[in-house]
Structures are given as C-alpha cells and as structure tokens.
C-alpha cells in the first residue's frame, strides 16, 4: 500500500488515515477505466464531425470512391458551390436576420415581463406565470396547424416578419421562466433607492434593474440563440420556401439524391456547423456555466 | 392611452412586493404596466395560447384548412384515429422512442457524469477525475449542431455505399456490412435512428448531471469513502438518489423531445422509413395536415400527441414519487 502516491494522479497530499481496504489500487484501475470510457465517447462524438470536415474537401468522385481515403488536394470548390448554387448562402443570411431580430425582441420582452411578474404583486400574477409554464410544456405540434391559419389571417404567412413573431412567442415562456427566478433574487433596496431618487418605473428598470440582471440575461440569450438557430419545424410550416438555414440544409440533402453533389453537401454541413462550434469553443466555459445555473437553480 | 391601459387593468393595484406602499397611478406607471406586461402577454396569447385552444376545437371538426366552413364531427376524428393502421403504427413508434431514448440517454449521461465527478483521487476530498474538462467540451459538441444537420451527417455515415460506417466495418472483416442499408432495412432503421438521437442528447445531460453532482455536499462522499464504499456503490447509492430531481427533469424534457423527433426523422427518413418502421406521430400529423389537407384530422393527432406527452410526464412524476423522490437531504 505504499505506492498510493503513484496511484494518485491528482497529486493531492495523502491525508492520513483515509486509506481503507486498498482504495488506492482501485483508484488507479478506476481512473484508467474512466479515461478509456470518456475517450471512447469523445471519439464517437468527434470522429463523425471530423469525417464530414475531411469529406468536404473531396470531389464527388472521391466521395463515391472510398469513404476512408483522404482528399487528393485541398480544393475549396465545394464551399463555393454550397454557398452559391445550393441556396445555403442566402439561407444563412436569412437565418442571421431572423434569429438576430427574434433574439433581441424576446430578450427585451421576456425581461420586461418576468420583471413585472417577479417584482410586483397584482391580481392574476400567478395565473399568468403558470400559463407561461404551461406554454413551455405543451408540444409545439399541437399548435402548428392553427398557427398556420393564424399567420395566414394576419398576412404573415411566408414572411420573415411572421417567423420572427412566432419565434418570439415560442421563446417567451422559457425566457420568462428563467429570468423570473433571476429578478426575484435581486435586492429590493436598490429599487427603493432608485424610486426615492425620483426615477420612474421605466428608468428604474432600464438603468438600474436590467444592468444588474446581466449574467442571467447572458445565459438565457445563449440558450435562446441555439434553440432558435436550430429551429426547423416552425419555418418548415410557416415559411415553406426554404429560406432559413436548417430548411435549406434539409432541402439540399433531399436534392442531393438526384443532383449527386455530395462534396458540396458536406461543405454545406461545415458552413452550418462551424460558426456555432467555433463560438461555442471560445465561450464554452460560460455556456456550460449557464447549464449549471439552470441545474442548480 | 386609455385603450391600452384597459388591457392591463389587472396591473392597477400593483405595488412593490417587498414593502406594501400603494402608489399613485401616474402616466409613468400606467404606461409601464401596459407595455411591460401587455405587449408580451398579447403576443403570447395570440401566437401560443390561442393556437393550443383552437387546436382542441379543430380536432372535433372535419376542417380542411382552406374552406371557410367546417362540420362539427365530435369525437369522430378520435374514433377514426384508432382504426387508422398508419396512425397506430406511428403511435407505437413514438411510444418506443419515448421509452427507449430517455432511458438510454440518462443511463449513459449519468454514467459518464459519475465517472468524471467521483473518479480521481483515492484520498482527501472528492475532486473528480483530472484532465476531464476536454471530455466535457467535446461531449457538448452535438448540442451546438442543429438537429436537422445531425440527421444529415448520420444519414451520410449510414449510407450503404459511401458511408463511413460500412467502410469501417468491412475493413474490420464484417463482410455482411458491405452495402448494408442501416436506415433502409426495417430491422435496423429504428435502432439506428435511436442511436443518433441519443448521440445528440448525451453530452448536454452529462454536463447537467455533473453540475447536479457538484452540488452535493462533499462530506457525504467523504463519509462514504471512510466507510469503504466502492465507487460504483457510491454512484448508485449516493449520487443517483441525491440528484433524482435533476434526473426527473431530464426525463421529462427528453420524453417530450423524443415523442416529437420530427426533425431527426425529416433528415434521416422523411417518408417514414422502410415499411413505415420509423414513422412517428409528428410526421404522420405533418403529412396529414400539409400534404393531404386534412387539418381537422391532423389536429386530433396533435391532441393525441399532447395526451401521450402528459401521460408520460405524469408517469415520471408518479414513479419518482413512489420510489421515494423529493428527498432533498444532503443537498448543499
């Protein structure tokens, strides 16, 4: 049992009297098994993505030839084809516009609504809150058919504006639910002080309360961004001309069966995935921090 | 302003929650409530609540989505649903997804989370496996990839001739894998699909569970160690009971997501798969509404989907309650 120090890769000072029944030896075996398991899972996650990335530089002949070989040379033709000819480029820009507008609007409206619900007592407060919660749990599919005709009646069907309004509406319950808990925890005396200083409700919110809620806003914004960026069902039904990135991808794939430009399909996948993945790697600490905040809450 | 103020008449007696001092109704306060509560609420009511309510009415009619008239058929649509073999098949497939996907995902995510958190040093405080942050970063990748793109990627991987899966398997000597259509054979289509959905969820829930386990009082682990509990034992008898509320939440979210699964199917098997072996309720609903134009009938499928979802959530709560959930002891 003297080699416990070796079996502790963590390098913690061996505190006396804790070594019971060969824990040290088991620790090493456990660590090895643990790393093997985690490496296997990581490979399972990374290899498919890596394969797509490598294949995106292959010509269609090479893709059809052998899935395992590397591309002969680094050609970027696939990327040009994917961006220009397949509609992925314009769809990418549309997605940025729709998600950008929706995100700003839903964050502002969601913050306002959750602030009022969390900080003011009035008749119907709980009812509105629970109604929002119910909106969070019901399957979107139940709403999809009536939603189609509602947008048609407003003349918003097949418009980007219609998509923005729907995105805002369906992201609102989550935003309110999450921020509600956040605003509730903010101190009351700051609010009182602002009021005493003569700030109205509007100024108190925008200049005092909202800045204090910044960490919570950042977390929710990240979740909302990913949720809206990945949205597929709502645009498929409400904007059927394949103008948003996820739709363009699905459309491209179903076309690829006939046009057989698989190299470009892989390139389109990389175009779709890479920006978000790069941003994730840069901000991964904050993002996982948000998950933690959501879990511990 | 009087018209907009009427939408928030409920907001009038408002006062700060902490101190009960009633304030005068100034323009500032009235406009504040009208905008802050009124605008989000109107959007929410028009685009979220009203479609749900309308859906329940439409499900009782034979509306085709375009005509101005519709006939009230009562429970007729629901009777028809239970005689519709395609729908019953899609119901069965959705229920399979709702049972298998959350279970497999949670077991895997929990196992990986335990390995990360209660691995590491044999003595001293439980501080988790070293050099494990890279695994967490990598496992989280699929969460940043749109579900439809995940479907596309795996459809390429599973492809009989140019997919990498068969290429790897044949080079390892499994000759039967040559040109085997994973998604095109009714024996493997569902399992292959389930694998992809699980693949996309595990990383997120792993991170969620790690957060949950980190929230447990470390002294509990310490005393378990002093009592000579093995790591597997610690994971099963300590960790699982202490984060069961996280597990319950995860189960419900995963259940809702996998009962839907429309996106994955749309990317991997848009037509329901071989012999409809991967057709799910959401797909059947979509086809019925937007291809066949039977809006009334389609919404009754939506109601069924909602009912199945609610039953699922209720079951999760009941099972968690019966097996002794809601035990907050030992949480920090």
TrEMBL record, chain A:
Q: How does it sit in the membrane?
A: Multi-pass membrane protein
Q: Could you name the domain of life of the organism this protein comes from? A: Bacteria
Domain ABC transmembrane type-1 intervals? 92-283
Q: Which GO terms describe its biological process?
A: transmembrane transport
CDD domains assigned to the protein according to its UniProt record, in alphabetical order: TM_PBP2 (cd06261)
Against InterPro entries, the record matches this protein to: MetI-like (IPR000515), MetI-like_sf (IPR035906)
Gene3D superfamilies, alphabetized: MetI-like
The text of the family note is: Belongs to the binding-protein-dependent transport system permease family.
Annotated protein name in UniProt: Sugar ABC transporter permease
* Provenance organism: Actinocatenispora rupis
UniProtKB/TrEMBL annotation, chain B:
- List the CDD domains hit by this protein, alphabetically: TM_PBP2
Spell out the Polar residues composition-biased ranges.
Answer: 1-10
What are the TM regions of this chain, as residue ranges?
30-57, 95-122, 134-157, 189-211, 250-267, 295-322
Would the keyword Membrane be found if you checked this record's keyword annotation? yes
Membrane topology, from the record = Multi-pass membrane protein
Q: Gene3D superfamilies, from UniProt?
A: MetI-like
Q: Name one GO cellular component term.
A: plasma membrane
What segment(s) does the record annotate as region Disordered? 1-20
Official protein name in the record: Sugar ABC transporter permease
Q: Which organism is it from?
A: Actinocatenispora rupis
């Amino acid at each position: 049992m003297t080699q416990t120090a070796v079996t502790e890769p963590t390098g913690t000072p061996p505190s006396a009297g804790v070594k019971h029944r060969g824990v040290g030896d088991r620790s090493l075996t456990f660590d090895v098994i643990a790393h093997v398991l985690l490496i296997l899972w990581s490979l399972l996650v990374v290899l498919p993505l890596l394969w797509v990335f490598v294949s995106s530089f292959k010509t269609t002949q090479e893709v059809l030839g052998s899935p395992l070989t590397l591309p002969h040379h680094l050609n970027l033709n696939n990327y040009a084809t994917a961006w220009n000819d397949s509609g992925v480029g314009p769809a990418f820009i549309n997605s940025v516009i729709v998600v950008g507008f929706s995100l700003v609007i839903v964050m502002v409206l969601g913050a306002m609504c959750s602030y009022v619900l969390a900080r003011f007592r009035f008749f119907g407060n709980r009812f509105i809150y629970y109604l929002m919660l119910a909106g969070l749990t019901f399957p979107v599919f139940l709403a999809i058919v009536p939603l189609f005709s509602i947008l048609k009646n407003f003349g918003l069907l097949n418009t980007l504006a219609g998509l923005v309004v729907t995105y805002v509406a369906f992201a609102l319950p989550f935003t309110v639910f999450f921020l509600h808990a956040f605003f509730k925890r903010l101190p009351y005396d700051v609010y009182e002080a602002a009021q005493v200083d003569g700030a109205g409700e509007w100024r108190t919110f925008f200049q005092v309360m909202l800045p204090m809620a910044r960490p919570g806003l950042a977390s929710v914004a990240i979740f909302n961004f990913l949720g809206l960026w990945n949205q597929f069902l709502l645009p498929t039904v409400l904007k059927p001309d394949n103008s948003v990135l996820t739709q363009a991808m699905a459309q491209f794939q179903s076309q690829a069966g006939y046009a057989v430009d698989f190299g470009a399909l892989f390139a389109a996948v990389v175009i779709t995935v890479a920006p978000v993945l790069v941003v994730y790697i840069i901000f991964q600490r904050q993002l996982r921090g948000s998950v933690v905040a959501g879990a511990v809450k | 302003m009087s018209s907009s103020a009427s939408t928030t008449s409920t907001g009038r007696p408002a006062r700060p929650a902490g101190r009960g001092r009633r304030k005068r109704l100034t323009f500032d306060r009235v406009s504040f409530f009208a905008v802050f509560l009124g605008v989000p609420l109107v959007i929410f009511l028009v685009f979220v609540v009203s479609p749900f309510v309308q859906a329940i009415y439409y499900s009782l009619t034979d509306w085709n989505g375009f005509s101005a008239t519709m006939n009230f058929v009562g429970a007729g649509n629901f009777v028809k649903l239970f005689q519709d073999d395609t729908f019953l098949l899609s119901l069965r497939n959705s229920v399979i997804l709702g049972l298998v996907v959350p279970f497999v995902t949670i077991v895997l995510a929990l196992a990986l989370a335990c390995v990360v958190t209660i691995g590491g040093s044999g003595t001293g405080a439980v501080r988790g496996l070293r050099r494990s942050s890279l695994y967490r970063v990598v496992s989280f990748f699929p969460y940043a990839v749109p579900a439809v793109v995940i479907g596309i990627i795996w459809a390429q991987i599973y492809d009989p001739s140019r997919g990498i899966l068969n290429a790897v398997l044949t080079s390892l000597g499994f000759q039967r894998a040559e040109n085997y259509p994973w998604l095109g054979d009714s024996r493997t289509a569902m399992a292959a699909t389930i694998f992809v959905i699980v693949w996309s969820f595990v990383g997120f829930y792993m991170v969620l569970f790690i957060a949950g386990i980190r929230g447990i009082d470390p002294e509990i682990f310490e005393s378990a160690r002093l009592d000579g509990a093995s790591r597997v034992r610690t994971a099963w008898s300590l960790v699982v009971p202490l984060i069961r509320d996280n597990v319950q939440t995860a189960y419900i979210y995963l259940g809702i997501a996998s009962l839907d699964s429309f996106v994955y199917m749309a990317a991997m098997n848009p037509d329901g798969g071989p012999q409809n072996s991967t057709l799910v309720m959401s797909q059947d609903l979509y086809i019925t509404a937007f291809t066949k134009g039977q809006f009334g009938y389609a919404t009754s499928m939506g109601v069924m989907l909602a009912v199945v979802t609610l039953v699922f959530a209720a079951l999760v709560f009941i099972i968690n309650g019966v097996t002794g959930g809601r035990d907050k002891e030992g949480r920090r």
